[in-house]
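TA notes, week 10

Several of you asked for a full example with nothing omitted. So below is the full record: structure tokens for the whole chain, then the designed sequence directly under it. When grading your own attempts, check the secondary structure regions first.
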């Protein structure tokens, strides 16, 4: 029998917020792709609706069981995700020079998107089992840092620098929230800054070029700098009120590359202007604040860390994507949650929302 408190504590506002964001994403995808042939003969915006339907089914499944049941499954799920990443490198499908997809029958998916959830659960289990009454030092963090670095290195081999960096950033966000010893923090930041020149040698040639173009995109306006220049033109030309639905020149005339994925926000900014962009940014801010509040209200450390991790994913993906389309961040191929097209990304994000709703519903349950 379902406890009535679960229904009474269900966060309808968060679910409604996500529905609004997905609706905005679908409408924006219609504008960005209505002249194209679509994916496998299906219009992109329709396929996004179908995927959202699957995602909401998975969200409801996640709501059905107590999230504490994931504690013993956290490490096995993590290792399954690692096996999937290895499978991508061995048997994955390559598109546009990147080998990121696994095909199972008629379904293709990106394991790197699902790894985010698996890593968050593994880190939550680690910090649930290793709660300290002092700040975490090097000895306490080498294992969870290794948990983050292993999938990040495998994802970089695909290559997918954006997702790899996202895994590191979400892990560091969790560490900072839980408390890092000042000595550990300063030494870590210093070591990171000193190692940046070495990091350069591990990048692919096109990734190096992206970083150089970020500094001066005008040096190659028809090549590597084309993406960011066209995106900045689209965002800037939207002005305060925007050009109107289906009236954006950069998007409708196909000047914008990847306008349904990485640069979906550019289409939105051109057609809906500052007002529309501000509304989307506000929705993301509300989503992040809700996630933080759920983490704060959680009655156990496992739920708190899971909520913090999901919050970090939305924060960093939103920040990097929006910064990318206006030239504040290098182009690293990170989609905007709920707005950009992407089946694996949307499903992973909805599973994350399901976990947040689950934690919120059961916040009155005290684990012994």
């Amino acid at each position: 029998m379902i406890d009535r408190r679960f229904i009474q504590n269900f966060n309808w506002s968060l679910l409604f917020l996500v529905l609004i964001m997905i609706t905005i994403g679908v409408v924006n995808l219609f504008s960005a792709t209505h002249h194209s042939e679509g994916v496998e003969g299906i219009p992109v915006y329709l396929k996004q609706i179908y995927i959202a339907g699957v995602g909401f089914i998975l969200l409801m499944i996640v709501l059905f069981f107590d999230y504490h049941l994931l504690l013993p499954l956290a490490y096995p799920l993590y290792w399954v995700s690692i096996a999937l990443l290895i499978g991508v490198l061995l048997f994955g499908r390559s598109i546009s020079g990147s080998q990121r997809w696994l095909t199972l029958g008629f379904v293709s998916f990106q394991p790197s998107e699902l790894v985010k959830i698996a890593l968050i659960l593994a880190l939550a289990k680690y910090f649930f089992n290793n709660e300290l009454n002092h700040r975490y030092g090097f000895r306490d963090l080498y294992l969870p840092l290794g948990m983050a670095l292993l999938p990040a290195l495998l994802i970089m081999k695909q290559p997918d620098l954006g997702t790899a960096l996202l895994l590191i950033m979400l892990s560091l966000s969790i560490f900072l929230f839980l408390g890092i010893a000042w000595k550990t923090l300063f030494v870590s930041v210093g070591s990171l800054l000193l190692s940046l020149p070495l990091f350069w040698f591990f990048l692919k040639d096109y990734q190096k070029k992206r970083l150089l173009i970020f500094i001066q995109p005008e040096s190659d306006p028809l090549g590597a700098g084309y993406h960011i220049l066209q995106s900045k033109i689209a965002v800037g030309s939207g002005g305060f009120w925007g050009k109107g639905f289906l009236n954006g020149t950069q998007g409708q005339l196909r000047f914008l590359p990847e306008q349904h994925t990485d640069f979906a926000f550019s289409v939105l900014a051109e057609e809906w202007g500052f007002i529309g962009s501000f509304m989307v940014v506000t929705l993301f801010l509300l989503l992040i604040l809700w996630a933080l509040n759920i983490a704060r209200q959680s009655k156990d450390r496992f739920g708190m860390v899971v909520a913090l991790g999901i919050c970090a994913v939305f924060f960093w993906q939103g920040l990097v994507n929006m910064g990318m389309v206006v030239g504040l961040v290098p182009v690293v191929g990170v989609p905007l949650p709920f707005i950009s097209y992407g089946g694996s990304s949307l499903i992973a994000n909805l599973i994350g929302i399901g976990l947040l709703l689950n934690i919120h519903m059961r916040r009155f349950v005290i684990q012994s």
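The mean pLDDT is 86. Use that as a sanity check on your answer.
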